[in-house]
């Protein structure tokens, strides 16, 4: 049984609170939030208590592990707190928006030797995980080409986009991680072309909403990632891996299985309305993997180094958007 | 908030216990089972108490509603207890294996006026419910032909089959209900052909494991139901409704979304391993519908009369298997 | 090289004329029709000549084989002519609308010993043929249940229906043949329920437009066939074979491969507009099989006995529609 | 009726010969090949004559149009001959492997004013054409992202690759054309990353067999094209167009419609074995469009300027493979 404190009681914190409450091997003890009332409300819904101070939430007498779901600018600080307190930590990405500071944080935490997992929840998608299993089992042979699609239904609010770090760091970063994870290979360079097509104001804030990224992996294999902020047809996420022996894909997931046949067309249920509906089951699965690794002292299924690598790729990708050329990726951080 | 007692702590009782524990508007109080230890174990896992006696479980001072998931031969008795105690009841089908006794029970309970729902959980399948919505909305026009497929992965143990009442009463009865529910029409006659193909001992106990039923509805529309006990490819359940304006179907549900392409074939994830994996989400949905009807005093989404009708069709179907001719169905019970 | 005369220059005759003209091993010589002008026009389009008399068309000095595509009531007579002239014959079904006369014709022709094939063109559908190959190869194990769907887009003209012999003899007969062919098993009894739903005048002429047939095969395996005259969504033909080891299907064929995603739905190309668009490739394939059997003296892929069997099943099916009970099928004709 | 000469009796010439012979409005007169015997054999199979000399094949007294399917290095010369003779021409791409010489040829032919169509046969694929119709009709709104997949089953012989001009000019060029055609937009720059993964000798001849191209269109919309020479699972060609209002795709085409269900998997017919099986119907359709444009004096559905544009994009793409940066595309040739 692992005793948990949840740091952050916003939207994603409340999602994690549900997973914590439902997990049979978790004792969900504390919730901390800068807004104490919000912490109290969330804790109350799940039989936990609200922590008065951050120090209370990181008290090893009370908890074994913290789930860091606070605002992005506090991830690094909270990771250091966990390291200082000797607590295990499950942390939302990114480690820190500044790559250098993220790298320092990782080094600091590694010296402390606590178990840490970055919450790359898409690694726990049922179909993506099966795809990785097939690739690892050699069913497609040597990887030659990976195609990832990441498309959200509608442009997030501009206020959000302004502080998001840009499409590469906010959206595509998940797929940089998936590409590394599925292939087991690191990328050596990245090229990205992007446009602001959904709303001209996206260009005004120096960002793009539609982009095409190409990665070259260390083996020479290639990766294509298309990232779109506005589809008009729901949330579309897919992965295709082509290798020397064949191809496997984690296909487009439909929100339902009903089809209507009338006249010359067949109309089926489309995709999920948004990313949350699509990836919801991955949150509990990711927490389950973290708890299981803790209890068996197994390696973490997504390390801080993985988090750092995804960020480093995103930085190079953001540069390529500006330079118009393939940018080298340095993962020796 | 509805206070519940669960009657029966076997496999299906434990499934319902999870739904009861997770429902935000349910106060899961008591579990009763003829095996007190089993009741205690199940209650303990979900923060409920084990009832010492049936009377304790039906105590209106303790609970507002009972979930009757005890063995089939006790359904009728427990329904009468709920009626006597003035408790709402959610009951597993069948009401009673004997149709006459089932009819008497329904009359008794109706006189008491308690809210009762028969747990036809398949009505709460995401896709089946959407199909019904489409048919009700007139999207296929007047119904002409309904095709239902009900195929289980492997023959249940012979010991189970011997007491099951036969394929019509045990398996196909769910689909007799779905046919009535989706079309809003009553059948007037039924023909069934059946064989024991999976295991010759099925014939020895007077049952079949593969059957084809044809119903004629009051409008003249037709229904085909194929029921199979052994597929070798998992659990296969589908419904297709053809009408004057087109067709709609609740299609074959896949257990996953990964496809491998090698050589001349594409291999996709197949069907769910068994019926439970396929219909699991329907249990919580059915409970939710019952609670919602209780709280809003709305009509029950599946009444005792619906339960009785499905049983009456199953009786006629079982007769047709023997007579080799279409048997009339009398729903005026 | 086989020299052919085509008997009948109506719609289906003109379809066969194209196949005859395109086949590399066919010398398409003559066209006969009761309307000489029509024969002349069709022959002219394909470099053949119009025959003045039936005798000319059956002249062994001119042709090696005849393709009998004349009106139904002349099939038997033309088969006897082919037998008398010692010509090979490819004949449209049915042999004769009267089963006894059909049986006599078959006996007469068999005594003459000419090679004859009944044009059960659906046996040459790409997917149906592959399905049969799989079943023959044992990939589904012992057949337990076969599901056939036969649905036309719109009710044919009443004038046609009046002389068609009824839905069993005109439409379902093709699927009686497919059931025997794919399973390699003969049916022993048949039950059919039917209704006139598309147009009440169908009932006035003693026919049905929507029917559900159940066959019991000699092994105990069951067959379900749904036959519909009016879908509102195009032409729908499918076959599913479930056996002791698994299932295989020749699925719903789409008229195109384009899908549009907008809002919550995905709209795909639907089915073929009509039966002709769906089965068109089978005509040339059937002719090819006949020619190939002629040139290699191989057994015909669909014999007169097959044609007779399908008709005998249709007769029993038509009786069952009236009696409301399963009718025995006697294939010892 | 259009009288045709076919120039070139190799593999692709023999494909075109079949289309010419089958087209009702084509009088297939002559076949020319540098190997007279080969011309004679092909002509003989289709009721045409072999031309002794090129001059004979371009004789306006004999023919109205030429189909130029000779070796690549003779396309430009044969186009000039057609221009000089005042004959219409349907020409295989490319116009000439050298872009400057191709541009001169186009200018020369345009001065002559003859009707010319480049045989971009993929424009006549049933599904691609429907996709373009949808995009033109505004069903996806303003185009934002186009994804094209072009994957062949197995590496062509090295001898072929050596003279092919490289993957961009030989394979991807078709998809550069499709991207322009479907969107109605010209690209302004292109980036390509490529690797030789199927066979190291591909790198030795300075070519790639796996590549990812990104185009920026004049509107800012993006195009991704993945080109693969070796799949191990057949021929895979798809197009997806995402716009401001939704998405449409010309999906993966299957070679058959049979699915087998056994155990936990469903195995379906896969893709076509090779490009020819997949695109075969497009050849007759392209010829039909050319003849129809000739007979109605309509604009050609694929002009020499279209051919030149595709080549210019391929040149820039080939440069980008070397420079590692996005290369500008100049279509003002």
TrEMBL record, chains A, B, C, D:
<feature type="domain" description="GFO/IDH/MocA-like oxidoreductase">
    <location>
        <begin position="129"/>
        <end position="248"/>
    </location>
</feature>
<keyword id="KW-0520">NAD</keyword>
<dbReference type="GO" id="GO:0005737">
    <property type="term" value="C:cytoplasm"/>
</dbReference>
<dbReference type="Pfam" id="PF01408">
    <property type="entry name" value="GFO_IDH_MocA"/>
</dbReference>
<dbReference type="InterPro" id="IPR055170">
    <property type="entry name" value="GFO_IDH_MocA-like_dom"/>
</dbReference>
<dbReference type="InterPro" id="IPR000683">
    <property type="entry name" value="Gfo/Idh/MocA-like_OxRdtase_N"/>
</dbReference>
<feature type="domain" description="Gfo/Idh/MocA-like oxidoreductase N-terminal">
    <location>
        <begin position="3"/>
        <end position="120"/>
    </location>
</feature>
<comment type="similarity">
    <text>Belongs to the Gfo/Idh/MocA family.</text>
</comment>
<dbReference type="GO" id="GO:0000166">
    <property type="term" value="F:nucleotide binding"/>
</dbReference>
<keyword id="KW-0560">Oxidoreductase</keyword>
<dbReference type="GO" id="GO:0006740">
    <property type="term" value="P:NADPH regeneration"/>
</dbReference>
<dbReference type="GO" id="GO:0016491">
    <property type="term" value="F:oxidoreductase activity"/>
</dbReference>
<dbReference type="Pfam" id="PF22725">
    <property type="entry name" value="GFO_IDH_MocA_C3"/>
</dbReference>
<protein>
    <submittedName>
        <fullName>Oxidoreductase</fullName>
    </submittedName>
</protein>
<dbReference type="InterPro" id="IPR036291">
    <property type="entry name" value="NAD(P)-bd_dom_sf"/>
</dbReference>
């Amino acid at each position: 049984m692992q005793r948990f404190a949840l740091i952050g009681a916003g939207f994603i914190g409340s999602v994690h609170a549900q997973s914590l409450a439902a997990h049979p091997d978790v004792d969900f003890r504390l919730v901390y939030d800068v807004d104490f009332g919000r912490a109290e409300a969330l804790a109350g819904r799940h039989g936990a208590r609200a922590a008065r101070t951050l120090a209370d939430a990181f008290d090893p007498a009370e908890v074994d592990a913290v789930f860091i779901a606070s605002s992005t600018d506090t991830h690094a600080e909270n990771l250091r707190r966990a390291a200082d307190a000797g607590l295990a930590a499950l942390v939302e990405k990114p480690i820190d928006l500044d790559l250098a500071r993220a790298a320092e944080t990782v080094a600091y935490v590694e010296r402390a030797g606590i178990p840490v997992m970055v919450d790359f929840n898409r690694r726990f998608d049922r179909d993506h995980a099966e795809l990785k299993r097939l690739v690892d089992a050699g069913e497609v042979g040597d990887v030659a080409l990976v195609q990832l699609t990441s498309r959200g239904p509608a442009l997030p609010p501009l206020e959000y986009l302004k502080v998001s770090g840009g499409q590469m760091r906010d959206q595509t970063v998940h797929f940089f991680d998936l590409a590394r994870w599925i292939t087991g290979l690191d990328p050596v360079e990245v090229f990205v072309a992007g446009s602001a097509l959904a709303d001209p104001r996206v260009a005004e804030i120096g960002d793009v909403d539609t982009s095409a990224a190409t990665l070259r992996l260390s083996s020479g294999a290639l990766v294509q990632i298309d990232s779109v902020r506005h589809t008009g047809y729901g949330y579309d996420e897919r992965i295709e891996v082509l290798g020397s022996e064949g191809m496997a894909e984690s296909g487009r997931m439909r929100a339902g299985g009903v089809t209507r046949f009338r006249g010359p067309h067949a109309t089926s249920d489309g995709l999920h309305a948004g990313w949350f509906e699509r990836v919801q089951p991955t949150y509990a699965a990711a927490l389950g993997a973290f708890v299981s690794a803790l209890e068996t002292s197994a390696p973490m299924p997504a390390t801080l180094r993985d988090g750092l690598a995804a960020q480093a790729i995103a930085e190079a990708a953001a540069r390529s958007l500006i330079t118009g050329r393939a940018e080298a990726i340095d993962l020796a951080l």
